[in-house]
């Protein structure tokens, strides 16, 4: 089964995450931002990113796999990302 951007967006909606898929000149990047005050269990980060040079597409299967590990609460009381700084 080929994983597409639609699959990434579907899981993101279920998890309350935000997807940004952009093409700029020679690059194509997909970012998946965890909901406020959450981090991705895969990597402990607020945002998963996959970028490539066009004409290739981001590895949506890899993004989906990392998203499927789930979310956790951000445990950093001084987190710039969560505070919006």
Pick out the low-confidence regions. Answer: none
Strand content: 25-35%
Shape: globular
Work out the helix count: 3
What would you call the structural class?
alpha+beta
Largest sheet: 3 strands, antiparallel
Order of helices and strands: HEEEEHEH
Rg (CA only) = 13 Å
The averaged pLDDT comes out at 92
As a percent range, the share of helical residues equals: 25-40%
Helices and strands in order:
Elements: H1 5-15, E1 18-24, E2 27-33, E3 38-40, E4 47-53, H2 60-67, E5 71-73, H3 80-83
Antiparallel strand pairs: 1-2, 2-4, 3-5
Helix pairs in contact: 1-2
Describe this structure in words.
With 85 residues, the chain is an alpha+beta fold. The chain has one domain (5-71). It contains 3 helices and 5 strands. It has helices at residues 5-15, 60-67, 80-83, and strands at 18-24, 27-33, 38-40, 47-53, 71-73. It has a 3-stranded antiparallel sheet with strand order 1-2-4, with helices on one face. A two-stranded antiparallel ribbon has the order 3-5. α1 (5-15) runs parallel beside α2 (60-67). The longest helix has 11 residues, at 5-15. The model has no long low-confidence stretch (mean pLDDT 92).
Which characteristics define this entry?
single chain, 85 residues, alpha+beta, 3-stranded antiparallel beta sheet
Write a concise synopsis of the structure shown.
By secondary structure, the chain is α+β, with helices and mostly antiparallel strands. Helix content is 27%, strand content 32%. The longest helix has 11 residues, at 5-15.
